[in-house]
Specification:
Blueprint: H1 4-9, E1 12-20, E2 23-34, H2 38-46, H3 48-54, E3 58-60, E4 67-70, E5 75-82, E6 86-90, E7 101-109, E8 115-123, H4 129-133, H5 136-153, H6 161-164, H7 168-187, H8 192-206
Antiparallel strand pairs: 1-2, 2-8, 3-4, 4-5, 5-6, 6-7, 7-8
Domain Activator of Hsp90 ATPase homologue 1/2-like C-terminal: 35-146
Protein name: SRPBCC family protein
InterPro entries: ASHA1/2-like_C, START-like_dom_sf
């Protein structure tokens, strides 16, 4: 059994401005520990057969300079790959985004031999997106992704991820994640009103009210 509130609280979140090739952007950062060897965590995030179990089907020319594709989601170029500690890729939903959205994952060994994962996603959001949704726009998605990795490393499996996302437990996790990103936004200088608006919009996007007619 996974304690979703505990897993939610296991993540440290932060956000801030970031200069990108195409202009000024933003970065969301997540850090958490996994009770697993660094080699196992690295294998879980880079081996297609394992990535498919906890995230999405992964295909492509999986080498530095090659391109990858996550089915129905992002693709891009592999910029750096230094097993078992560093992976950096461009994160492209649309071709014109290439170079203006990057994801970096760093792994290290903690004091008690746990693996510390640090993920940074830097991008220039589409016009109007940041004021409406703030860092939660991508932060909630990454929280869900890191939760999926928990299941993989504990040899658990969610057969239908879409159905799981509609469960009351998932809604609690998503809502908690959205609130946590609102707090990170305030810590980075956003007003309480702006952060709250972004939390409300992000929560409605990821976990719309299931009540008919609302």
């Amino acid at each position: 059994m996974i304690d979703l509130v505990k897993e939610l609280n296991a993540v440290h979140r932060s956000t801030g401005p970031r200069t990108m090739p195409g202009g000024e952007g933003h970065t969301v950062k997540l850090r958490r520990s996994y009770d697993a060897a660094i080699e196992d965590v690295w294998d879980a995030i880079t081996t297609p057969a394992r990535v498919q179990r906890w995230f999405l089907p992964l295909t492509g020319d999986l080498r530095v300079g090659g391109h990858y594709q996550l089915k129905g989601n992002a693709g891009g170029k592999i910029l750096r790959c230094e097993p078992p500690r560093l992976l950096e890729v461009t994160w492209t939903i649309a071709p014109q985004d290439d170079g203006n959205s990057k994801v970096e994952v760093r792994l290290s060994v903690g004091e008690n031999d746990e693996t510390v994962l640090e993920l940074a996603h830097a991008a220039i959001p589409p016009p109007g997106m940041w004021p409406e949704y703030g860092p939660g726009a991508v932060g909630v998605g990454w929280d869900l992704t890191l939760l999926g990795l928990v299941y993989e490393l504990r040899s658990l499996f969610i057969e239908d991820k879409d159905a799981w996302g509609l469960t009351p437990e998932a809604r609690v996790f998503i809502t908690g994640s959205s609130v946590a990103w609102g707090a990170a936004s305030q810590a980075a200088g956003a007003s309480a009103a702006d952060a709250q608006k972004a939390v409300e919009n992000t929560t409605k996007f990821y976990a719309p009210d299931p009540t008919p007619g609302t």
